Amino acid sequence: MAYINENFLKLKAGYLFPEIARRVSSFQQQNPGQAARLIRCGIGDVTEALPAAAIKAMHEGVDELADRSTFKGYGPEQGYAFLREAIADNQYAGLGIAADEIFISDGSKCDTGNILDIFGKGNRIAITDPVYPVYVDTNVMAGNTGEADESGAYSGLTYLPCNASNGFVAVPPVEKVDIIYLCFPNNPTGAVASREQLTAWVNYALANDSIILFDSAYEAFIQDENLPRSIFEIPGAHRCAMEFRSFSKHGGFTGVRCAYTVIPKALVGCTSEGEKIPLHQLWSRRHSTKFNGASYPVQKAAAALFTSEGKQQVAELITHYMGNAALLREACLGVGLPVYGGENAPYVWVGCPPGTSSWEMFDKMLQQALVVITPGSGFGAGGEGWFRISAFNSRSNVEEVCRRITAMFPPHD
Ligand SMILES: *Cc1c(COP(=O)(O)O)cnc(C)c1O
């Protein structure tokens, strides 16, 4: 009999989104008359059509494949030069990132999970609490943790608490860690680290020989020009960080699939003998061996987001979603709930009324407002007492959600 990877058995069974789906479908069965009025602000998925420039480029890409003289088979595993160069020029201008330090892929979820292939055993890993669950679960699968306790916390991980007192931006730990996952703008809290806060992280990483895995999937939503969009805006980051970015939220590509990972050539890890090895070389080898590139029409579509029409259309999409976020913030503040995020991120992070847990709030919103939100405790014990509302929706749905939230908390004097 073949042995299995027993680390999978350590994973907590009740994963967040299946549990949300279960509660929603049971509510629908019990209230068939109301099912049509349900508004989903739970899963972080975009809702609007692709930018026209991307659609046109994708069509052109398909037409090229349809003709023998312009046909393309396997592309370069690391991505086509036209896309790597467009990213270097548009996303990293002046930041000292070369096109060949950018690796194109089919998603950041995959990249943030697959990156563990190039790291050895025994690393001390730090993650924030609450957190995007992918970082935790992929470390569990890779055998980098022990078992989970009652609260869902795994032994062997260093949890960095994020709460109202630190504005949901984790501070560097006192102890030494080897790998740190940071995500700004943050999913789920919508928090963004300031330049000073990120500088503290880079200085910590340089002092402790740690590596920061920086997920900036929501970079395009930053409105405040003083906030850093890339970790590579911070001096020294090229020696201690890699960055994950995706077209999923930037261009509404969640169903198209295209992302990239930036690994500076100066970034090194070490062997057990202490020999320093560039991570760029290992990720390149990993990509060539286990990945055969993102599809050509998709890379064409991604590159089209950097044309002048593409940039204009992306800006309109972002303006739409951020307008939604502003309305949701206003409605929640208006009923007296504590509100974070939603200013530089498409997620609004809201405190539950005193004495109400995240899942109790989920049920209340479902039953009283017919609105599906995401319970904060699903992102880690630190999210208990909070919930996330996604701004990915139509304007009319968001306006209706705001009316229902306002009606749920009638003013009293
Ligand atoms: C949506 C999201 C991504 C993007 O994942 P893809 O696989 O590229 O769609 C990455 N990180 C976070 C935190 C996200 O919320």
Quick summary of this structure?
With 413 residues, this protein is α/β, with parallel strands linked by helices. 36% of the residues lie in helices and 14% in strands.
Describe the structure.
There is one protein chain. With 413 residues, the protein is an alpha/beta fold. It folds into two domains: 6-49 and 309-408, Aspartate Aminotransferase, domain 1 (Alpha-Beta Complex); 53-307, Type I PLP-dependent aspartate aminotransferase-like (Major domain) (Aspartate Aminotransferase, domain 2, 3-Layer(aba) Sandwich). It is 36% helix and 14% strand. The chain contains twelve helices and 15 strands. It has helices at residues 16-30, 52-65, 81-91, 108-114, 133-141, 195-208, 247-250, 279-290, 296-304, 308-334, 358-369, 395-408, and strands at 39-40, 102-105, 125-129, 157-161, 179-183, 211-215, 241-246, 259-262, 268-270, 276-278, 339-341, 347-351, 371-372, 374-375, 386-390. The chain has a seven-stranded mixed β-sheet, sandwiched between helices. Strands 11-12-15-14 form a four-stranded antiparallel β-sheet. Helix 2 packs antiparallel against helix 9 (296-304), helix 4 runs parallel beside helix 5 (133-141) and helix 10 (308-334) runs parallel beside helix 12 (395-408). The protein is globular and about 65 Å long. The N and C termini lie far apart (69 Å). The model has no long low-confidence stretch (mean pLDDT 96). Residues 44, 107-109, 132, 183, 187, 215, 217, 246, 248-249, 254, 259 line the site of pyridoxal-5'-phosphate.
